[in-house]
Design a protein that fits this description.
mainly alpha, five-stranded parallel beta sheet, about 475 residues, DNA-binding
DNA sequence: TTTTGAGTTGTTCGA
DNA sequence: GTCGAACAACTCAAA
């Protein structure tokens, strides 16, 4: 009888789990184990909310494992030490885990492999395509998205048969001790129900039928006032659904699209999955992006870093409605619409002239889907310090963005109740309301809702000059 | 090695 | 109100 440990990290699922399947192929007994790593919880980029989502997902996973005759073992402590103990207790002859490419995870796994007396086998699965399958012909990594995505798409489309079914049985020792998981938060605090079941339902709802949301994605994905996106990111973050299953759904939708526009929409959604893998690749191959700009010359930008401005941004009190709505949605739910992320991020960097790393850290502390690769890539894209050949002139105008993507103001009114009764024509620039109109709307600028903390036109010139100085 | 085409998501201005 | 052009120069990928 051989025993194998399935070391769970960010693959909280039974369906299409290569680490689990490989462990099952090599061991007749499986020990599913999660090690609560105090170093991760204590990180300045850590988030209680994300941890709560993770623990909720572990509860769901523990139940699914128990249904199959197994037991999830949770231990607190340093991974190498805890795994060594688990190996001793169970007599395991190997440890299997899904490879994680972040710098912290890579270093951790290297030291764990060195410390263990049994082999640590790492499998693919974090990404839909093996990471190394999307390198240039000379073996070096891409640094531009479009050629990367072309190479990614050259591979054979995913098939249903590529998906590994959930095992029906998970035989393993059930008498081993397990630490308790923290109690789940109150339901009102959980804007996302954790677990693989919920993830599958969301994906199914997003792609089902010829009028599925995925077929309107190209148009509606930019509308924070509408539910035009799958909202799968927290689940992908923790592997509650496999990237491969999501990509397969995209391929299937492309194939079955009723018309060219629908096909384009489904393809756009696939492109977003490819973006995720692109940034995972960038962080892996260029780990310096964690500490500074992808293009190091931008580390010399003369940031202003005004603490009061930063606090106003965090609190959703900048006086720009679309920015404030975005930041309050984040604080309230741990999630922010992608268009809103770009607008809020652009405002911090380009209007407030605050180092993008401040915003990156704040997002990581708030976001349930906070992922070091995607978050870093997104911030560097916004700041123009990253892989994107950033046109110097791409400075978002928070008024124009609001008018274009929240045309009726539903998003702003949802999250900024002070502006509830402001007429739509003033909603995205409420400081232009005449005094009488302010009284009528019950919204006095500078009193019940802040005046803009910076003048966008002035700020735009300032950031263009600051960046020009760096280039020169 | 050299050359060529292209680069997520925008804004503003003037016709 | 709509539309197209202008907005730098540079780096990357591939032929």
């Amino acid at each position: 009888m051989s025993v194998a440990i399935w070391w769970i990290r960010r693959d909280l699922r039974l369906t299409d789990n290569q680490a689990l399947a490989t462990a099952l192929a090599h061991g007749s007994q499986i020990v599913p184990a999660f090690i609560v790593d105090p170093q991760l919880l204590a990180s300045p980029y850590g988030s209680d909310r994300r941890a709560a989502f993770l623990f909720g997902g572990l509860r769901a996973l523990a139940a699914a494992i128990a249904e199959r005759g197994g037991k999830l073992i949770v231990r607190h402590g340093e991974p190498a030490t805890q795994l060594a103990t688990l190996c001793r207790e169970s007599g395991a002859s190997a440890v299997y885990a899904e490879r994680d490419y972040s710098p912290y995870a890579t270093a951790r796994d290297t030291s764990v492999a060195a410390a263990l007396s049994v082999p640590l086998h790492l499998t693919d699965g974090l990404t839909a395509r093996p990471m190394m399958a999307a390198l240039k012909d000379d073996g070096t990594p891409y640094t531009v998205y479009t050629p990367y995505s072309r190479r990614w798409r050259q591979q054979v489309p995913l098939q249903r048969s590529d998906i590994l079914p959930a095992p029906e049985q998970l035989p393993g020792p059930t008498s081993m001790a397990s630490d308790d998981l923290p109690e789940p938060g109150a339901p009102s605090e959980l804007s996302f129900v954790p677990g693989e079941g919920e993830a599958k339902q969301r994906l199914a709802a997003f792609v089902a039928g010829t009028d599925a949301p995925i077929y309107g994605y190209a148009n509606y994905r930019n509308r924070p006032d509408l539910a035009g996106t799958a909202q799968l990111s927290p689940y992908l973050r923790f592997g509650m659904i496999s990237a491969r299953l999501a990509a397969l759904a995209a391929y299937t939708a492309i194939e079955r699209a009723p018309d060219a526009d629908s096909r384009q929409s489904a393809d756009t959604w696939l492109a977003e999955l490819i973006w995720r893998e692109f940034y995972i690749s960038i962080l892996h191959h260029f780990p310096h992006v964690r500490r500074g700009s992808f293009r190091p010359e931008y580390d010399a930008v003369a940031w202003q870093n005004d603490e009061a401005h930063f606090a106003a941004w965090c609190a959703g009190q900048t006086g720009y409605p679309i920015v404030d709505a975005a930041m309050r949605q984040l604080a309230a739910t741990g999630w922010m619409h992608n268009r809103a992320r770009m607008v809020a991020a652009s405002f911090l960097v380009k209007d407030l002239l605050i180092n993008w790393r401040w915003g990156e850290r704040w997002f990581m502390r708030q976001l349930i889907d906070g992922d070091p690769a995607a978050n870093n890539g997104g911030w560097q894209w916004t700041a123009g310090t990253g892989t994107d050949a950033a046109p110097y002139f791409r400075v978002f105008n928070p008024v124009t963005q609001g008018q274009k993507f929240d045309p009726d103001g539903a998003y702003v009114r949802r999250w900024v109740p002070e502006l509830q009764r402001v007429p739509t024509k003033y909603l995205h620039e409420p400081w232009t309301m005449p005094r009488s109109e302010q009284t009528r709307a019950g919204c006095i600028i500078g009193s019940t809702y802040p005046a803009p903390i910076v003048d966008h036109a002035v700020a735009r010139e300032r950031i263009l000059a600051a960046y020009a100085a760096v280039k020169a």
